[in-house]
Each structure stands twice: as structure tokens, then as C-alpha cells.
Amino acid sequence: MKVPVSWLSEYVDIDIGLDDLAHRLTMAGNEVGSIERTGWIENVVVGFVKNVRQHPDADRLRLVTVDHGNGESEVVCGAPNVAQGQKIAYASIGAVLQDAYSNEPGKTKKLKRSKIRGVASEGMVCSVRELGIGDDHEGILVLDDHAKIGTPIGEVLGESVLDIELTPNRPDCLGVVGVARDVAAITGNPLKEPEVDFEAKGPDIGTLASVEITDPDLCLRYTTSVIQGVTIGESPKWLKDRLLAIGERPINNVVDITNFVMFEIGQPLHAFDYDKVADHKVIVRRAMPGEKLTTLDNKERRLDTDMLLIADSKRGIGLAGVMGGANSEISKSTSTVFLESATFHGVNNRRTARTLELSSQATLRFEKSLRSGLAEVGLRRATKLILEIAGGKAASGIIDVNPSAGQELDSVRLEHSDIMRVLGVKFDRSLIETTLEGLGFDLAGDATGWDVLIPYWRPDVSISEDLVEEIARIVGYDNIPTTILSGRPPQWQPQPEMDLRRRVTDLLVQAGMRETISYSATTSEGEARVSLGESLAAQIKLRNPVSSDFAVMRRTLREGILMTVARNSRIWRGPIAVFETGRVFLDYGEGLPEERQMATGAFAGPRNELHWDLSSDTSDFYDAKGAVEFVLDNLGIVAVFEPGEDSTFAVGRTAIVKVPAANHAVIGVVGEISAEVFSEFDAEVDSVAVFELDLQAVLKIISGSTQYGGNGKFVEFVRMPASHRDLSLIVQTQSTAGEIVEIAQRNRIVSSATVFDLFEGQGVPAGKKAVAVRLVYQLPNKTLTAEQIAKVEQQILDQLKKELGAELRA
Q1: Stated pTM of the model
Q2: 90, 277, 425, 634: which is deepest, by most CB within 10 A?
Q3: Number of structural domains, the chain?
Q4: pLDDT for res 710
């Protein structure tokens, strides 16, 4: 929000330095990003046009003789509005001006002596754009007659402008008066609010116009006035200067007034040509299917039924809160103005603007959900200015549809003790009252506190803590003394779900993976690509999605992780190892939807980056399985991987992760994505292996632990030596490595069992395979003898033969 200091000074006396003002506004929550000083350009002065004659060799150029206080110079000028007797901005050779013909913002050029069509030009007569104070380049800037010849242009046009970076919760500061109200509270100077009362001399407005709202949910309040006998023309200099200082282009007096009031108090308005409104009746309704409207930018817009339209009895005449229609705009022939000031639904207004790619200053304000009380204030202020500047007479009264919407003032209870509770410091009652009343709050006090009436321009204040914040920011956070906490420190509250998520994230990063974050919302079509099946919970559809790409809440992280793999594969040929932890949203039809924390990861592409000493094998199922094993081992969870089925994964390449010690609870799945599913993602890798862990299920298993494993007690390191033996077995083709490992680990002296080789083919009987297993034998309190190991090994072989038909390979 750009706030010219001279404009700000109209509503509050500023008796502190500009830098101090910027600092104090920043400390009060309205950060001043920069202070722009416009109009101060070296070698540009006030000039007087003494003579204008035609260029001898160009029909559209003229030779202008300029008196600039230091002599006279002849300038070649193509502006159509240059005329003898004008005061203008004259730039001499060496001046650095904005490049009016460049599309690059802020580009400048240094003025040089030149010949134009054979005639030397000793400088330039400047337009608004060349001076950097506006966008108009259709003609030169004409100054007031009282400007003294030779005066540096900065003394005439110079302006200091505060560029304030507003937070979304302060729509009141989208008007200069809102910023002035904060300045008044900061400095203690009174606020001078703009006058809004006007004298109505015309007929009763009910005899001139009418308004109908067919969808009150989208139009909360609609007010209008009618001004007859106006004269459309150029705005006075003060009004044009105000708009130019904030980068707005003056158009005509009535349109300029609506823009001025919007930037003054934050209420958007629109002026219609009364005679172009059929039957002089405005109907606020939804657009009809396929309805079209040509807006003021002369572009035809195709509307849908979610868009709110301002219409008359025959056609649409404006997009509510976005832009007016070209068929009802103010023109030089306009004699009667139908003035609109309304309150439109913020979310609907934003969606309409985004759908049509038609953002405006009005939309910027309406999407902040303005309170309805501002509508009448804006209407009365604009009507008063139109009468003063454009003349005419206002109809008696105003039309106000749903006026009760302007009275929705809330009351919040503020206890004196709340300030101490929140800020840890005491303030005098008089300071509290002066601060809040300076911001426009009405207070009714008693012995312990106040009932505070919230003004219509502060929709962000709804609880007592908001009021405490108001006091703190105006007093100044840097003026609140720091104090040491007294009493017992607050008790730490464990957050096991968050702690587990962080722990799993750290472990996956240690495993060489990169964390990604995707949106929590998606589309039904997008999620269908991962083939979730019919039995999963129903989708949760958003009532007001930001866009159609985020219409439903996700039920899985699989789609997001596969999209990430696909995007990376199109720009990267190295290893891809990514994961995400986050919530999924499941609606089982009973009670509130369930939110579950999940962790999903994917491996694709080569296992290692290109290197002469590293394998170039492709990532596969075992990379994903290894990541899961690494996480679970560090969490103290012993899991098994059993063959299973999942519609997202390839048949025969899927394992269900179970925990035997927890009644074989299922905590996840690992597998390679089926070719049919993966083909939906336009990736440039042949395959991808994915794991999915249900962190809620994991947390349930380890909930009795304080250190993610066992019962939270320290487990002593094993000091005794370990022995290992390798077995080469012949087993049935359908036997799994998990079954072999599970049987081997049943014996207490086997600390681990690992399958490290697999072979099928020549030398191995048909229907069977050779599996090599390494067994590690170890006890924590004594060294095992060879005899003990041999005895246990034979027991394992016997059990493998009994259950799997396994035999030692010859």
C-alpha cells in the first residue's frame, strides 16, 4: 500500500521525522518497506511555453520555445496537448528520465542533444510517465499557473511515499485513513476523519431508481445514490496529484473520485451511467450459464453461475466487486450518475477474479471480507465529492438494501488482568483506554475491565488477546521491559506424534533420502491414478477450493510422491530418493474424518551417481525395503515382510510390513509400482519402488517407550564376540527369504539372519532355488563354543527341512 505523506497529513498532524514515523509504524505492525521520494529529478525545472509552431518536415511534430528561467530553448515535441502559455516540466540535456517506450519497469535513459527530422532539440517537455509519477504518456504534464519558472520540479511535484507491506488481517489499512488512525494512536494526535455529509436537493431516490438482490449470501449489502446534472470533465489538480502519487492514472472527475475514496477509506465503489441502466433498476444476481460481459478493458468475458453479476432488466452491466461493464461506463455525455457502494462475499469475489484472470484494486479489498458498515460511509463520501467537483444535485435519501448488515458490531470483554497474563507487564487504566479509544474502539469500563465495542473497520479483532495485541503494538514492543519468569516453569507437554514424525524424518535423511512437501489437497482424477481401490474411505470434498486443482483432501501420499519422482526424472538422470511425511484425510462416514500421519518414500533411477568405483544398478524393491528396515531398527521395532497384494503395486513385487510382537499388526507396505499405474505420471524412468509407513500404527506400538524402543530402559552393549556361519540351501521356488529368516531367528543365540545370495538355473533342480544365508550367533553374557553353535545350526536345518523342505546344497 503506497501512502503519500502529504495525503496522510490531511487526516493527522505528523510532528515527528519521516524516518521516525516509518520506524514507529513498523514496530506497530505496519512494516514500511521503503520510503520513495518521487518527482525529485535533477535538470528538470518548471518551464513556460512561449511559442509553438509546426515542424517543417513532420506533420505530427511541433517546435516549442520554452523559457526555463535560465534562458530559452527550442524543443521538438510530439504531444498533442502542448500549447502556448502553459507551465510545463522542462528537462535539459543530461537529465535522467524514465524510458516511456520501454516495457521494462524502472528503466531510465539519459537525455542527449539530438536532431529530430533535421531540427535540433535542446531538451524535452515531459509527460507523467517520463517523470516517474504515473503511467500516462498520451500528452505532456501541464502544471498550475502559479508554478514559478525555473523552480526545480521536485519543489512542485516532489512527494514522499511510504510503501507499507500490509498483513492480510488489516484491510482497514488498505485506505489512507486506516493508516492515519494508527499514526494518530502512535503520536497521540487527533484523527481528522473525512467529511461524508452532503446536501440532497433532488427528488426522492425511490422515484428514480431501485435495487434487487437475488442472492443475499453473495451480496451482503448494497447502497446507492443518484446524482443528476453532473458535468464530466478533467479532475482538479489536487485530485489528480493524489492518484498520480500512488501510481493510478486519472480518467475523469467522477471515476477519479470513486478511485480516490477507495484509496482513502478502503471501500471500493463503482459509478454507472444512469441513462444506460435499463428501467433504472439494478439487479444483483448470479450470471446465467454461458452469459457474456464486455468489461471496461474491452475484453469479452464468459461467465459461469458461480459469478455474481450486476445487471439491469436486460443484461449484465458489471462484475460485482471486480470490474464494471463497458456498456454502462461513465463518458463525457453522462449527465446522471448511479453510484454503487456494496459489500460482496470475499471468497466468491476472489474466485471470480482468479477464474477470469482479472485482478483489481477492488478485488484486493473485497477478498479481505470487508465489514458492511463501510459501504454507506464510502457512498456518502463519494457523493459529497461528486457534488463538489462535478456539480449536480443528489437525490433525496439513499437506497440501502440490507442495512442491518452494517450494524454487526461485536463486543469483546477485556479484563485488566489479561494484559499482565499475556504481556507480563502492567499498564495504567488510563493508558489502556487512551490507546484503544485512539484506535476507534468504544469502551464501557467497570472495576475489573471493559466491554469493548469493535468498530466495523476492524474485522480482525474478535477476542481479548487481539485487544492486548493492539495495546502492545501501539505502546511499542520495544518499550515493553523484559522480565525473568517467576514461579515454576511451565510443565513440558509431550507431543509423541510430532516427535515420531520428526524422528522418522531425521532417519530417512540419514538413509540418504531428500524430504519433499506436496499439497494436502488434490483432484479426484489425480488421486485415481494410484488406484486406491473401492474399500478406502470416501473423499472429502472442499466447499470453497482455491482452484479446481485442489478440490478434495488427499487420502494418500502416493500420488504426491510419484508426481515428484516424475518431475525429477524429466530434469535429472541421477539417483532419485525422496520421501514425505504428512497427514492423509479419511472419511469413513461416522463422526469426524480421520487424519492419519503417514510416511511415504520412493526410489528410482540408478542406485548411485555415475562413478568408476560404484555400481550403476537401478534402484528396486530392496532399496525401499532397506529404508524401512533402517527406520524400524532405529525405533526398536522388529518387523517382518510378507508377500501381499496392493492395487498400486506390481503383482509379486509387494510386501506387507507386519510386527509379530504386536499381534502381527500391519504398519506399512513396500513394493514396486505397477507399470499400469506408473504410466499415468509421464516419468522418464522405467520403474519406481515405494514404501508407505502408517506412523499412527507405529506410534501405537511404541507408545509405552520414552526412547523409541523397548520400554525406554538402557540396553547394555553386547561385549561378547560373535560368530557367523553361511548356509547354502535348496528350497522351493515359492519359499520366501522372510520365512527362512524367521525360522532361523527363533533360536535365542541367533542374533541376526540375512539372505545374501539367490540363484536359479543350471545345477539347481527345476521348481527350486539356491539361497545363501548368513547366521550370526551371539549371547550377551558369555562366549559360545563351536559345539553349541553346531548343535543350534543342526536344529535350524531340521526345522527348515520340516517346514520348507529345505536341504543343504551339495
Answers
A1: 0.63
A2: 90
A3: 6
A4: 45
